[in-house]
Design a protein that fits this description.
By secondary structure, the chain is mostly beta strands. It is built from one helix and twelve strands, in the order H-E-E-E-E-E-E-E-E-E-E-E-E.
């Protein structure tokens, strides 16, 4: 049996190349926005924060440079869909730009919600590149309360009071 020498740095280089290939599928080549030819840029997905304030969810979306007219926000009871476009502003007098790392183009993101919301009563505010959506939670059917009375016989009976949905169980033991 022949011994094969293990080369850890070679293995790390192979792994790095595989990771580069994996992430290269997530990049988008942009042409025409700068003098640098075909510089790949990562596809842009806006960052989000989701807070639960008890009776409502507060969703904050970071979308700097995007105007309200370029946004499409759709809310279902279970998710929020945000799509839009960060438009490239052409300036005829700025021919001295050599390099730009600003991200331009379309983006889309769907944020699943942890609870159902009232999607017809949403409040939205776009200020300083932050979109804030206030999503009131859907009023869930209140849990029915069961009251258990322990008595003297083995039989158990349950009675539902009319109108208020309260259930009362009478359990008796001998």
């Amino acid at each position: 049996m022949a011994l094969i020498r293990w080369e850890p740095f070679r293995e790390m280089e192979i792994l790095r190349r595989q990771m580069d290939q994996l992430f290269s599928d997530l990049t988008v080549a942009e042409r025409g926005n700068s003098d640098i030819s075909a510089s790949p840029r990562t596809a842009w997905v806006p960052a989000v924060e989701l807070h639960d304030n008890g009776s409502e969810l507060l969703l904050r979306v970071e979308i700097p440079g995007v105007e309200g007219k370029d946004l499409d926000v759709q809310v279902t009871q279970d998710a929020v869909s945000i799509a839009g476009e960060h438009r490239y502003e052409k300036h005829s007098q700025s021919k001295d730009k050599v390099h730009s790392e600003f991200r331009y183009g379309k983006f889309a993101r769907v944020i699943p919600l942890p609870t159902k919301v009232q999607n017809q009563q949403i409040k939205a505010d776009l200020k300083d590149g932050i979109l804030i959506l206030t999503l009131p939670k859907l009023e869930q059917e209140q849990s029915k309360v069961f009251k258990v009375n322990l008595g003297q016989s083995q039989s158990a009976t349950a009675s539902i009071e009319a109108g208020n949905g309260n259930t009362q169980s009478n359990i008796t033991s001998q």
